[in-house]
Write a structure and sequence with these properties.
Structural class: alpha+beta
Number of strands: 25
Length: 544
């Protein structure tokens, strides 16, 4: 007896319930009824997957995978995937670094159970394919990054987290978003969610340059119904400006000899270099000049004063009859040149006051007269704007001059839907011709716009509003994204409103909290996009 109660015979109690237990586990023939067992556990399963309201808690699912996501992202960020044609070869057309990044993501895709494919090293994809429809929706990311210019407080390819911010080249453009999208697709797959359409996560390798990766993709694969790229900002970028990338070439007159001032000019510009990436505002510029020692000494003093007046960092170093002028500006993305300070244009503006050899004077004058202090195209006569895509912008990202050598400046021009490339190039050609320049063959991208009422647009608005509580405004951009290269494509994040963009800058960063939040948003968006009903004419066609 214990507290007046006989000791319990647990074996006896279990034996008494044996028949009932077996009946509950089995069908009439004594065979396990697996469907019945699964049905009995349905509520618990849904509770594990869902919040109290019976809806999948996407934030919870993303948070559960946070540590693994960050570990995989760190490994990706450590890969220097700047385009390097010097290391290109069969299967790695953009160079070894980008090839390593692509192979890494495809390996992660295989380990996660996705169908993967390498498209000759130009692109690859991981596909969640539960549907037999044969069509698919796309999420497009890129693994290439711009060079690690700018000021960094830590090595750009050694990621680290400080105060909740992840720092590394590619953190926000576009490796962080790519990994968020990858884990979002993993969430959908691991939850075993149904899909009317397959979902393909595409990895590009040349987004920061000519997008040759997508050119090859479209040759080898059929287009998606629609899709988005996590390579801009939230809420939804459904319109993109057109782009013109073009060199403006100096036609040498032959009246400037290699020794310098035979023409009577006070100084000889031996070389000028500014920038190095078309879609970045040049952060550094350098000019090499020759002249009489007394003149160079005065010029160096004048340049020091110029830097002080401009509030810019510069230096003048003289050796005998040679003077080197260096100027430092502020880098920014080429789609927003007003946010940077173009070191090359500011240095040429200083050189504009000098007496130089004729070819150098024409070079300096043409660039300065049309681009210094004007990133909207007024001096070229091409300034324009519309209500959907905004104003035309011009970034002069690469500038090279040397006597007797090919000399040019490169324009990365983004124009609204109201303009045409023919009109713009015609005006630029006429203006530069009087300085002895000609426009080279351009690389063109047409403006892109998905109608506001398109089903995917409305769905993404609803998802964004319900997951964030914020207004799902429809945006346009001067940036070029993969969204414009597929039918009905948009950009969807992942920079949140109010976040300072650090893409293409030193100390590029992304908030870890926002990275996980974006993963949750993408997971829900992918699931709902995979189950949207489209009209027959919504599928196929050309992007942009």
């Amino acid at each position: 007896m214990r507290n007046g109660v006989e000791a319990m015979d647990w074996n006896k109690e279990a034996e008494k319930r044996k028949d009932r237990l077996l009946a509950d586990l089995s069908d009439r023939n004594g065979v396990m009824d697996w469907n019945k067992e699964a049905e009995k556990r349905k509520d618990r399963l849904l509770a594990d997957l869902s919040d109290r309201n019976g809806v999948i808690d996407w934030n919870k699912e993303a948070e559960k995978r946070k540590d693994r996501l960050l570990a995989d992202l760190f490994a990706l960020l450590r890969i220097n995937s700047v385009k390097d044609l010097g290391t290109s070869g069969p299967g790695k057309p953009m160079g070894e670094g980008i090839s390593e990044a692509l192979n890494y993501m495809l390996r992660l895709g295989e380990e996660a159970g996705f169908e993967t494919k390498d498209l000759q090293g130009y692109a690859g994809y991981a596909e969640y394919a539960p549907s037999e429809s044969g069509d698919y929706v796309a999420v497009l990311c890129h693994l290439d990054v711009v060079p690690a210019s700018g000021e960094w407080t830590a090595p750009p390819f050694e990621p680290e987290i400080r105060d909740g911010q992840l720092y590394a080249r590619g953190a926000i453009d576009d490796k962080g978003p790519a990994m968020a999208a990858f884990y979002a697709l993993k969430i959908v797959k691991e939850l075993g969610l149904p899909a009317k359409h397959n979902v393909r996560l595409i990895f590009g390798t040349d987004e920061e340059h000519a997008c040759d990766c997508m050119t090859m993709y479209r040759k080898l694969e059929k287009p998606p119904i629609c899709g988005f790229t996590p390579d801009a900002e939230f809420p939804i970028v459904r319109a993109e400006k057109g782009q013109i990338n073009v060199k403006v070439l100096l036609t040498a007159s032959g009246d400037s000899d290699s020794e310098g001032r035979a023409d009577g000019s006070e100084f000889c510009l031996k070389a000028f270099h500014g920038g190095g990436t078309a879609n970045m505002v040049p952060e550094n510029a350098v000019a090499f000049l020759e002249g009489e020692e007394a003149n160079l000494e005065a010029l160096a003093a004048g340049f020091t004063q110029y830097c002080m007046d401009k509030g810019m960092e510069g230096s003048a170093s003289r050796e005998d009859k040679a003077l080197t002028l260096r100027l430092k500006g502020v880098s920014a993305h080429g789609m927003e040149p007003h946010l940077g300070r173009n070191a090359a244009l500011e240095l040429l503006h200083f050189l504009r006051r000098l007496s130089l050899q004729p070819d150098a004077e024409r070079y300096v004058a043409c660039v300065n007269d049309h681009l210094h202090g004007d990133c909207l195209g007024h001096a070229f006569g091409v300034a324009m704007s519309d209500d959907v895509t905004g104003a035309l912008t011009i970034n002069c990202g690469i500038l090279e001059y040397a006597p007797g050598e090919p000399s040019f400046f490169h324009l990365n021009l983004r124009y609204p839907a109201c303009g045409t490339s023919d009109f713009i190039l015609d005006h630029i050609s006429k203006r530069v011709a009087s300085y002895g320049f000609q426009v080279d063959t351009p690389i063109l991208k047409n403006p892109h716009h998905v109608p506001d009422e398109y089903p995917m647009i409305r769905m993404l608005q609803r998802v964004y509003e319900e997951e964030t509580g914020r207004e799902p405004a429809l945006l346009s951009t001067g940036g070029g994204t993969y969204g414009a290269l597929i039918p009905n494509g948009v950009a969807f994040g992942m920079e949140f409103p109010g976040t300072k963009s650090t893409a293409h800058q030193g100390d590029e960063t992304v908030s870890v909290e926002q990275l996980i939040k974006a993963t949750a948003i993408y997971a829900r968006a992918i699931y709902e996009l995979a189950n949207l009903d489209f009209e027959p004419n919504d599928a196929g066609g050309e992007g942009g």
